Amino acid sequence: QVQLVESGGGLVQAGGSLRLSCAASGRTFSSYAMGWFRQAPGKEREFVAHINWSGSSTYYADSVKGRFTISRDNAKNTVYLQMNSLKPEDTAVYHCAASTIRAVTTSSARYNYWGQGTQVTVSS
């Protein structure tokens, strides 16, 4: 079982950068694939990025590809989301999630554990 806590959200100007962190507690963190999702007001939760258990494979939504980078440090039980060239449409609550599924998945239903979320607001 894994518990996840996000941090690093805040207010940033368009074109700026922000780094989100997701700290995990519990054993066998490295056995989980990790993902980032976001949810804007009035919208459904949206897939952002995925990273496999070892960090050797990543996958991104088209909307963030080339701007966001997901990474993990299993020694620190932490996954990161580096967000560059931020746009106002990136404004949302960002959640990290853990999955036991080996294959890449963009479906929130296939993630077993979720963090509480951290707010990211991008001003124009």
Care to describe what's here?
With 124 residues, the protein is mostly beta strands. It is built from no helices and 11 strands. The strands form 2 sheets. Strands 2, 4, 5, 6, 9, 10 and 11 form a 7-stranded mixed β-sheet that branches. Strands 1-3-8-7 form a 4-stranded antiparallel β-sheet, with no helix packed on it. The protein starts with a strand and ends with a strand.
Oligomer: single chain
* Total beta strands: 11
Low-pLDDT stretches are: none
> Roughly how much helix do the residues carry, as a percent range?
under 10%
Helix and strand content put the structural class at mainly beta
Shape: globular
Distance N terminus to C terminus?
40 Å
Features:
single chain, 124 residues, mainly beta, 7-stranded mixed β-sheet, 4-stranded antiparallel β-sheet, 11 strands, 49% strand
Quick structural summary:
This protein is mainly beta and 124 residues long. 0% of the residues lie in helices and 49% in strands.
Write the layout of secondary structure elements.
Elements: E1 3-7, E2 10-13, E3 18-25, E4 33-39, E5 46-51, E6 58-60, E7 68-73, E8 78-83, E9 92-99, E10 113-114, E11 118-123
Parallel strand pairs: 2-11
Antiparallel strand pairs: 1-3, 3-8, 4-5, 4-9, 5-6, 7-8, 9-10, 9-11
